[in-house]
Specification:
The longest helix is centred in the N-terminal third of the chain and has 28 residues. This protein is mainly alpha-helical and 341 residues long. The protein has two domains: 221 residues, Heme Oxygenase, Chain A; 82 residues, Arc Repressor Mutant, subunit A (Orthogonal Bundle). The strands form two sheets. It has a three-stranded antiparallel sheet with strand order 2-3-4. Strands 1-5 form a two-stranded antiparallel sheet. Helix 3 packs antiparallel against helix 6, helix 3 runs antiparallel to helix 12 and helix 9 runs antiparallel to helix 11. About 6% of the residues have low confidence. The protein contains 15 helices and five strands.
C-alpha cells in the first residue's frame, strides 16, 4: 500500500525549485544592489527597512518554539534566538545590523525608532511573524528554508558591497560574513526537521507553499523599498511559477477577461505616505504607478478595454503595454489580490 508521499529527493527538489524561481535575489532592486546600481540613499533605505525584518526574526523563532511540543526540535531551534538577540559571548545579528547602519551613515535611533520604515515592509514582516504563530510548527519551520539559498546570496552581497560601495566602513559588513556560515548550518537543520516531520503528502505540499509564502514576504519587502527609493522600473516584478505540487496555478488572461479586486481587497491611497496600496486581511501591498493605473480601470472593463484605455491615455505602444498589463494582472492574481471573471 502506498502512502502517496513524495520521495525524499522529490520533496527536496520541489523545495529548492521555489528558490530557483521565486527567491528575492532576482528582484530588480536586489539585482541593482549587487551590480553597484544603488545610490547611497537607496542603499541606506534598504538597510533601514531590512532592520525591521532582522529584529523580527527572533520573535518569529520564539513563536515556533512556543508551538512545538517536541523537545529535540526545540533544542535544535533555540540557538536562533540568541544568534540574533545575542548574549554575553556573542553580540548577535541585530547588533551587527545596527553596526552596518552606522557604517552606512545612519544612526541607531533612526532604525530603532522606525523613522524610515515603509508601510509595505511593516505589513509583510508582520504577516510572516503571524504566519509563524498560527501555522503548525513544522510548516512554520519549512517557511524558514529560504536559508537554503542564503549562503550564496550572502557571499555575493559581501563581494558587491566591498567592490561597489567602498564608502561603507568595511567593519560594518560583519553581519554578512557571519551569516555565510550560519545560514548553511541553519538551513541544514531546518531541512532535516522538515523532511522528518512533514510526513504526509498534505504536509509536504503545505511546506512548499510555506516556502513560497516566505519568498513572497521577502519579495514584497523589496517591492516596498524599490517603490520608495525611486528605481525606474515600469511594472511590478513578476515571476514564472511552475506547479510541482499539483495545486492551483494562475489562469491565463484572455482579452475578454474582466479582472476585479478579490473579496476583502481594497485599493486606496495610504494617508501617511500618499502612495497607492492594496489593503487585504493579511496585510498591505504598495503599488507602483503602472499597477495603480491598471487597477483603477478594473471596473468591469475587459483586459482589451483596459489596454486600449491606457494606450490612449499615455500614447504608449499597444503591444508593450499589453505585456505590462498581463504581467501585472498575473502577478496580482497569483497573490490572490484580484479575480478573473
Amino acid at each position: 500500500m502506498t502512502t502517496g508521499l513524495w520521495e525524499r529527493e522529490t520533496f527536496v527538489e520541489n523545495l529548492r525549485g521555489i528558490g530557483a524561481r521565486a527567491y528575492h535575489d532576482k528582484h530588480p532592486f536586489h539585482v541593482a544592489m549587487n551590480e553597484g546600481g544603488l545610490s547611497p540613499d537607496a542603499l541606506r533605505g534598504w538597510v533601514a527597512n531590512r532592520f525591521y525584518y532582522q529584529r523580527s526574526i527572533p520573535i518569529k523563532d520564539a513563536a515556533i518554539l512556543s508551538n512545538c511540543p517536541v523537545r529535540e526540535v526545540r533544542r535544535v531551534w533555540i540557538h536562533r534566538i540568541l544568534d540574533h538577540d545575542g548574549n554575553a559571548e556573542n553580540e548577535g545579528g541585530i547588533e551587527a545590523w545596527l553596526q552596518l547602519s552606522e557604517a552606512c551613515g545612519l544612526s541607531r535611533a533612526e532604525l530603532i525608532e522606525d523613522r524610515h520604515l515603509q508601510a509595505g515592509v511593516r505589513f509583510a514582516v508582520d504577516a510572516y511573524v503571524n504566519f509563524a504563530r498560527t501555522q503548525p510548527w513544522p510548516i512554520a519551520i519549512a517557511s524558514s528554508l529560504t536559508e537554503l539559498f542564503a549562503p550564496d546570496l550572502m557571499a555575493d552581497r559581501l563581494r558587491a558591497f566591498e567592490k561597489f560601495y567602498s564608502w561603507i566602513d568595511p567593519r560594518g559588513l560583519d553581519y554578512f560574513r557571519r551569516r555565510t556560515s550560519q545560514a548553511r548550518r541553519d538551513s541544514d537543520e531546518a531541512l532535516a526537521i522538515t523532511l522528518e516531520y512533514c510526513n504526509t503528502l498534505g504536509l509536504q505540499r503545505e511546506a512548499v507553499r510555506a516556502l513560497e509564502f516566505k519568498c513572497d514576504v521577502l519579495w514584497s519587502i523589496l517591492d516596498a523599498v524599490h517603490h520608495a527609493y525611486g528605481l525606474k522600473e515600469g511594472r511590478l516584478p513578476s515571476r514564472l511559477r511552475e506547479n510541482p505540487g499539483g495545486w492551483e496555478t494562475t489562469v491565463p488572461w484572455s482579452d475578454a477577461a474582466q479582472p476585479r479586486l478579490a473579496k476583502g481587497v481594497r485599493l486606496q491611497i495610504d494617508a501617511a505616505t500618499g502612495k497607492s496600496v492594496l489593503l487585504f486581511p493579511e496585510g498591505i501591498v504598495e503599488l507602483n504607478e503602472t499597477a495603480h493605473e491598471i487597477l483603477t480601470r478594473c471596473d468591469g472593463r475587459t483586459v482589451r478595454q483596459i489596454v486600449k484605455a491606457l494606450t490612449e491615455d499615455y500614447d504608449a505602444d499597444p503591444a508593450s503595454l499589453a505585456t505590462d498589463v498581463r504581467e501585472t494582472l498575473a502577478d496580482l492574481q497569483r497573490r490572490k489580490l484580484i479575480e478573473l471573471t
